[in-house]
Amino acid sequence: MALKLNEHISNNTKLYTLGGEPVTILNLISEEGGQGDVYKVSWRGKEFALKWYNRYETDVVGENQYSTILKLTQRPNPEPRLFIWPQAIVTETGRAEKGDMFGYVMQLIPAEHYEMKHYLRSDGDPKQKKFDTFHAMIWAGMHIVTAVRALHLTGLSYKDLNPGNIAIHPVTGKAVMVDCDNISVDNDPCTVNGMRGYMAPEIVRSNFSVTPNIQTDQFSLAIILFRLFYMDHPMEGKLWEKFPMITEQVEDELYCRHPLYNMNSQDDRNRPTENYAPNVKKRMALLPKILMEGFEQTFVNGIDHITGRTPENRWLQILSSARDQLVFLDPKCKTDRVVRFDKKETIPRGCLKLTVSKRLNHEVALYPMQSLFKDVVSGDRKDYTVRIGRVSVLQGSLVMQNLSGGVWKVYSPIDRKINPVQNEEWFKVMPETQIQFDEVHNIVGKVDDPRR
C-alpha cells in the first residue's frame, strides 16, 4: 500500500535503500518536524534514525530536496563526531522514480543529548534543560563552532542554523548537528531561507532573493552562540516595547531590516528590559567578558558588512580564552566560576595565572582540576580537545603534570635552574615559574600571582 502525505508508517514496515537494503521501521521518534517524521529503524543489523518526508508534495524524488540529500549521501561526513550525516536515501521500493516519497537514514542522536531549544525554555517549563556548569556551556559553543568551521572548509554551508538543529549534552557540553538535510555547496540554490530570528539581515532585506551562504551562516552562528550563553535574543530589547503586538512583519523589521544589537557599545537605545532579554546582563556578570568581543564584531560591524562578521577561527580563539578563565571550585567538578584577573574578588585564594608567550598572549587560570589544552600552545584551533597538562594540589602547593607526550623545560625560581620534565611527570608551579612547551617555536608560559 502506497504511503501518503501526513500519514505515519506502521511499525515493522520494510522500506529499502537505493541499493536494495531493507530498512525496518521500529517506532516513531518524533512527528514535530516541519518537513516530516523521524523513526527509529533497523538497518544493517543496527539501530538508526530515518527522516521520512511526508509534509509537502514537492519533497519527493526528482525535486530539489531529494537532489540535495542525494549529494550529501555521496559526500564524506566533514566531522563525524559532530554531524549526524545523511547516509542513504530510502524509498518504499528501493527505486527512485520521479514523484516517489522518500527519506534518509542517519545515526541516532547520542543518549542524553537534548535539542538546544530546550536549554532556552523558561524556568518552570517541564521540558527545560540546564547546563551543569559554565564549562559545559563553553564546550558546547566550541563544538558548534568547530562543526560549522569544518563544513565551511569543505565549501559547504549549513543554510538553516537554529536551536532545533543542535543537540547538546548538559554535563559534558558535547554537541552534534542533527538536521543536516539542507546543507549544500555554498551559493547553490536551496529550499530554505532559514528560521525567523536566525536569518541574516541581507536575506530578508533582499526579499529573500539572497541565497543562504557561508556569510549568512556566520551571522546565524553568532545568534546561536549568544542565545547559548545569554539565553535571550541579541536584537531584542527596549525598542520592542513600542509594538503592542509582535507580528512576523515586526520581527522582520527588528531582527533583520533595522536590527539594533541590545549590547551595542555605540548605541544604547535597545538595551535589555524586564520583558525583552531579561537574562542577558545577569549572564554577562557570570561569564567571561571576552565573549562579547565576537558579538560586537558581528552584530555591530557585521550587520551591513558581511565580511565584518566574526569568523569561526576567531570564535574558537575567543572560546578557548573563555574556557581557560573558568575554574572548578570542588574536586567533583560540579561548581565553577569565571576568574577575571582584573578583579581580585573573582580570583580564588591560591589561583595563579599562566600567560603563554607574547605571540599567543593566552591567559590560563591555574587552579586544582584545571586542564591545559594543546590549542593554547600550538595555536591550531583543531587541537582544542587535546589535553596536554593538568593542575592539582600537593601539600598546599599547586603542581602540574605534563601530558603532552614530549619533554617540557621548566625554570624553577627555587633553585633557579631549567629542568627537563618528562611526559606524565609532575612539577611544582609558583610565581616566576617558566615552562617551555615547544622548543622549536619557543612557546613559553610564564606564571605569576594575579592577586599581587
Automatic annotation (TrEMBL):
Gene3D superfamilies: Transferase(Phosphotransferase) domain 1. Residues 24-300 form the Protein kinase domain. One of its GO terms (molecular function) is protein serine/threonine kinase activity. Keywords: Kinase, Serine/threonine-protein kinase, Transferase. It holds the Pfam family Pkinase. InterPro entries: Kinase-like_dom_sf, Prot_kinase_dom. This is Serine/threonine protein kinase. It comes from Candidatus Choladousia intestinavium.
